[in-house]
Amino acid sequence: MSKEAQSDTQSSKTGGIVQLVTRGREFLNEAVAELRRVYWPTRKETVAFTWVVIIVVGFVALYLGVVDYVISLGMRLVF
Q1: What is the SS3 assignment for 1?
Q2: When you count CB atoms within 10 A of the terminal residue's CB, does the N or C end of the chain come out lower?
């Protein structure tokens, strides 16, 4: 490989790395800007929503348990 070809290859690699770093920095700056616009709930809201989730999960678990029990009773009667 000639010295000119090596120089061109080295130059293009360096340019690619610089472009990659520039694009990465731009992405991080945009991500930080987006996070500043996010609505962050207060501690009180977070606790309230957590309780809502726990209660809903409990009701769904209870419902699925009852459905499973009824189906298992039906299966015992059939078989």
Answers
A1: coil
A2: C
